[in-house]
Structures are given as C-alpha cells and as structure tokens.
Amino acid sequence: MGVRLLLAVQDTSVHLLLRNVVTATRPLLPFDLDIQVEITDSALCKRVAACNTDMILLDWSLAATDTPKLVEELVCLDANLRVVVLLPQAQMQYRMSVWMAGAWASISQESLDSEWLANILCLVKRSMERETKLRHTVEQFSRDRSQQLRRMIEIQEECRRRVARDLHDEVSQSLTTALVQLDTVEALLHRQPEQVSLQVNRIRTTLGRLHEEVQRVLLDLRPILLEQKGLMAALAWYGNERLRPLGCAVHLSGGNCAPDLPEEVQLTLYRIGQELLSNVARHAAAQNVWLDLRCTGTELRLVVRDDGRGFDAAAMQHDALRGVGLLGVHERAWLLNGTVTFTSTPGNGATVEVQIPYAGACCTP
Questions:
Q1: Bridge partners, residue 67, by sequence
Q2: Number of folded domains in the chain?
Q3: Is there a domain that residue 43 lies in?
Q4: Rounded Cα gap, residues 279 and 323, in angstroms
C-alpha cells in the first residue's frame, strides 16, 4: 500500500517546484507514491469528499488568507486526511492559524526539499498503518462484542425456556391435579362426606409438592442459599437435589477459600458448578460425582469428576460443547479470564477442570 499525494497548487512556478521536489523524493521512499493535482479549491473539496487522498500539499496561493478556513473544511470532509500547507516566507505568520485549523504540518516554500518531504511521507505512511491496524482491532472487537451479545441473548432465551418448561412440567401439572382433587372434594361433600378427609390430605400433599417445586425454580433463578450459607453449601444442596433422585452421590471437598471470595467470583463458580452437575445428571448416568475447590495462591481451581459413561473428548467440537452444557461453562470462566479443560473417554467418566486467576491470599489448599 502506497501513499496518495495530492498537489493543490495554482501558481505555475510553485507547481514546477513541487514537481521537481516530488521527483527527487520518489527514490528515497520504500513505498509507491501516487501523485494527483488540483488547481481550484472547489475541485479539491470534491476529491477529498470522495476519500481518495491520503495527504495534500496545499499551496498558499490556492486560497491565500482563506487557507485556514479551507484546511478546516478539508479536515471536516475527511478526518483521516493529512494536510501540509506550503507557505511563502512572507506569510509565515499564518503558521499557527493553519495548525489550529487542523493542518498536519506547514513549511515555507524556500525550505521545502526532497529529504523533508520524504520524512513527512514516511510519517504519513506509518500513521496510516497504525490507523489500519487500529481499525482492524476495533472491527474485531466489534465482531466479538456482537457475538457475545448474541450469546447473551441465547442464554437468556435458554433460561426462559428452562423456567417455562419447569413451570409447565411440574407447577402447572401439580396445580391441575389440585384443581381436580378440589372438584372431587366438592362432589364427595354431598355423596360420601366420610371420604373428604382423605381427599383433603391428598390436596395437602399435592400443594406441598407444588411448594417445593416453586422453591426449586426460585432457587435455580436466584441462589438465595448462596447468600445465606455460602458457596459450598449451595453447591451441596443443588447437587443433592439434582442427583440424589437419580441414585448419584455427591462428594464435596476443599472450599476453605469460599467464604472470602468476592461475590462475583462466588456466583460465577456456583453457576459453573450448577451447570456441570446438571450436565452429569443429563448425560453421565453416574453413581458418584466429586467436586473439589482449591486456591493455589495464584488461581482458583474447580474440578468436577464423575464415574459415568464419559465421552470422546478428542472429538468434541463447538456445537457438541453446547449440546452437553460445557459451552456455558467456557463462557462464564472466560468472563473471569479463566480456562476450562475436560478429559474423558467413553466408559471411563469425565473430569472438568476450571482455572480462574485469583491472587487473594484468602484460603489454604
């Protein structure tokens, strides 16, 4: 990529001077130089508005005392434009005015030579390269941000679907059962009043089960137990609630650092542990799961291991991670600059290790 240089000059003698200097400058440059010429301020503004110029050598004679105003207009048309003003020695008092208007540099006609111009052009080239690199970085950041926003929306929708499914499968069915039982009670009041007590007990059992399901959904949405009892107690409760009905025992160890961890870290570790335990319940068919939290002084290390059916870790891809719930774990760890590694082979269980940088001297291993 070369530099597109526009000579904005009307005076014939100055035009010849610029041509001679540019010709002598070309051999000094390690890049190509594309030269164009404009002789009126209106044509100059049209070309700049098209954004096909990198640098302008603007001769004072083109606009005279209106040069500062012209410089300001050119910079407004293209913020990345570098304007170098060529001033006669007699007009050097305007140097500050053109600088304040946005000129990149200025020089007297008598001082202009090939070495000076080559230095300026090299500075322009380096500035263009930095701007290009910065623009690419910003574009990449924008793409990453868009992907994260889309993923956040997906996570929100996934949470809504999960809550809706829980409400439909458990709460809604329990309410329907209770309503049917109430209808039965109403009918028995007239025909078999001695059966009313039995039906009331059934309704009480149904409502108790409904209360437990509502509590479970609420605790899943907002882990109040985490705030009241701490991280390890919350993970123990969730693991037992989720896995005990499946015949899987939960074994917790470590966690001495948990009470002193920042709230954000505790919540992140809880959500990660919650997702990993749910993953075991959905896919592993395990009899035991071990969860261990340690602090090494430089990082937090959460390890979840099960003795279930396992999977082919080497073949695991992005979409498959989503399918077994590990993509959310990666994303939550990433938010704390952490990493996730998992090892598994079919039939030999699985181990997921989460490492989060943490320098707090708050616990013993």
A1: none
A2: 2
A3: yes
A4: 10
By C-alpha distance, which of 76, 79, 74 is closest to 58? 74
Q: What is the spatial distance between Cα 318 and Cα 320, in angstroms, rounded to a whole number?
A: 5
Domain that holds residue 237: 231-365
In whole angstroms, give the CA distance from residue 312 to residue 329: 18
> Which residue type sits at 179?
L
Which residues contact residue 216 at a Cβ distance below 8 angstroms, ignoring those fewer than 6 apart? 166, 241
CA torsion through residues 211, 217, 218, 220, sign: positive
- Nearest to 255, CA basis, from 294, 223, 289: 294
pLDDT tens per residue, range 58-97 = 999 898 899 999 999 999 999 889 999 999 888 888 889 9
* 301 has pLDDT over 90: yes
Residues 6+ apart with CB under 8 A from 142: none
Q: Is the pTM of this model over 0.85?
A: no
- 204 and 198 Cβ atoms separated by less than 8 Å: no
Q: How far apart are CA 40 and CA 63, in angstroms?
A: 9
Check whether 353 has a pLDDT greater than 60: yes
Lowest pLDDT segment from 3-7, 130-134, 188-192: 188-192
Average pLDDT estimate for 189-211: 77
**Residue 186: band (very low, low, confident or very high) from pLDDT cuts 50, 70, 90:** confident
Ordered strands of the 299-306 beta sheet = 249-254, 288-295, 299-306, 350-357, 339-344
Last residue within a domain, chosen from 54, 78, 112: 112
